[in-house]
Design goal:
The protein is α+β, with helices and mostly antiparallel strands and 426 residues long. It folds into 2 domains: 357 residues, Metal-dependent hydrolases (TIM Barrel); 43 residues, no CATH class. Helices cover 22% and strands 27% of the residues. It has 9 helices and 19 strands. The strands form 4 sheets. The chain has an 11-stranded mixed sheet with strand order 8-7-6-2-1-11-12-19-18-15-16, with helices on both faces. Strands 3-5-4 form a 3-stranded antiparallel sheet. Strands 13-14-17 form a 3-stranded antiparallel sheet, with no helix packed on it. The radius of gyration is 22 Å and the shape is globular. It starts with 9 loop residues before the first helix and ends in a 17-residue tail after the last strand.
Length: 426
């Protein structure tokens, strides 16, 4: 079997061994309940930027693009701000964000929505545009059961030079970065504020740790330690986030496996779920970023609370282009089955990846590789968990790194003996 490079430091490995020898294997943590039979798949992006922070297009133009492209829901998640209140922005500043120079952002905005919608003030050369709020945009795009906008914020914090960014999806109020005396404390302080708001407002709020390799900010060990976080970005479409890692540091998928191994063995906590997002900033004026990564959520309705609750149960998969028909974990047979939607002229390879109980120092081992539109793996009982990644032969149409191909990632299964999980695309 193919094995990945070992990234677990000796002291942490020793901690794992001592845990096993003197404490025994941890009790299996609670895992998602059986997926509901009634529901549908909803496609969405949870990480999106606009002119309200450092994006280069108007929020209504961005929403229009995602809805036109067939998305079911979108979270606008600008840095440390919600799109509320009155905000005017210089036309000159807006046009500067096109990257390649020249004008056109305002012209396209006027062409799409007209002068009755676009608000301008000031004289030529000093004109400003008012940015529309989420509540103003909603009535023009939302359709019950067809398209939904979810309020979100990228809580943008840092410890020293290390960025600590956490998306909070389905917030009701802005959350001010809380800071901390370490990366771990910074994460925990911000997550604590999200949890406080969730309880106070009586609404579920999903958080996901963004781009851990951005400026090499967050290690797998730190991510494992913050067990309050349930999600992280296994794929982020921004080209500057070091998705593949380098010779000395693990890529995002390796981070996932290291962190999950440590969570299960050292921290006695459930594994992380992996989210794919766009982290879209540029919509024109050079290399554009929307449409690179998304989540497919199985929910009984297209409502913010229901979508968040479904994701918190693990009832979703992540994708950069591959569409799954079925992904079952069969409890009785201890078998993980994946079926991929066929595409003419395109082939698929599925890898079943995990960590063995008997060799926990080897994280992210490839247990099996299967070609075709259907793949299955029968667990032996020695796996801490199993996850599947499907890779297409088709190149990504808008790659964020060289040689990228379309993929899909399922969530970890098999880490709870009494788990019953069934995912069916209707």
């Amino acid at each position: 079997m193919m094995r990945t490079k070992i990234y677990v430091p000796f002291l942490l490995l020793l901690a794992v061994v001592l845990t096993v020898v003197f404490v025994g294997w941890p009790d299996e943590a609670e895992e998602p309940d059986t997926w509901t039979e009634q529901g549908a798949w909803y496609k969405g992006n949870t990480h999106t930027h606009s002119l309200w922070s450092d994006g280069n297009d108007f929020p209504d133009m961005i929403v229009d693009w995602y809805k036109t492209q067939g998305y079911d829901f979108l979270a606008l998640s600008d840095h440390n701000v919600l799109s509320r209140g009155e905000k005017w922005m210089s036309v000159k500043e807006i046009e500067k964000r096109r990257k390649l120079g020249g004008e056109g952002t305002l012209d396209h905005y006027l062409e799409r929505f007209g002068e009755d919608w676009v608000e301008l003030r000031g004289e030529e050369g000093a004109r400003e545009v008012r940015l529309k709020t989420l509540e103003e945009i909603r009535p023009h795009f939302e359709e019950e059961g067809k398209f939904l906008l979810i309020e979100a914020e990228e809580i943008t914090d840092k410890f020293r030079q290390f960025p600590v960014h956490i998306n909070a999806v389905n917030v009701g109020e802005p959350i001010v970065p809380q800071h901390g005396e370490s990366v771990v404390e910074t994460m925990r302080n911000n997550l604590r504020m999200v949890e406080e708001q969730s309880k106070r407002l009586g609404r579920p709020i999903l958080t996901h740790l963004n781009h851990p390799n951005f400026h090499w900010a967050i290690t797998p060990q730190q991510l494992a330690e913050v067990v309050e976080e349930q999600f992280f970005e296994v794929y982020n479409g921004h080209p500057g986030i070091n998705h593949l890692g380098d010779d000395d540091r693990p890529g995002d998928e390796a981070i996932w496996d290291i962190a999950n191994t440590l969570r299960l063995l050292v921290h006695n906590a459930p594994p992380l779920f992996g989210v794919a997002t766009d982290d879209s900033h540029h919509y024109h004026g050079g290399k554009v970023s929307p449409g690179r990564g998304w989540v497919m959520v199985w929910s009984d309705s297209l409502e913010a609370d229901h979508l968040v609750e479904a994701m918190q149960k693990g009832e979703f998969y992540s994708s950069s282009g591959v569409v799954l028909k079925r992904s079952n974990y069969e409890l009785g047979a201890r078998k993980h089955v994946v079926e991929i939607t066929e595409v003419e002229g395109v082939s698929f390879e599925t890898k079943f990846i995990g960590t063995r109980r008997t060799t926990p120092e080897i994280t992210g081992e490839v247990f099996a590789t299967v070609s075709g539109n259907r793949a299955e793996y029968e667990l032996t009982g020695n796996e801490l968990y199993i996850r599947a990644v499907v890779t297409s032969s088709r190149p990504h149409e808008n790659p964020s790194y060289k040689g990228q191909r379309e993929q899909a990632w399922t969530q970890p299964v098999g880490w709870q003996r009494n788990l019953e999980s069934k995912i069916e695309t209707k």
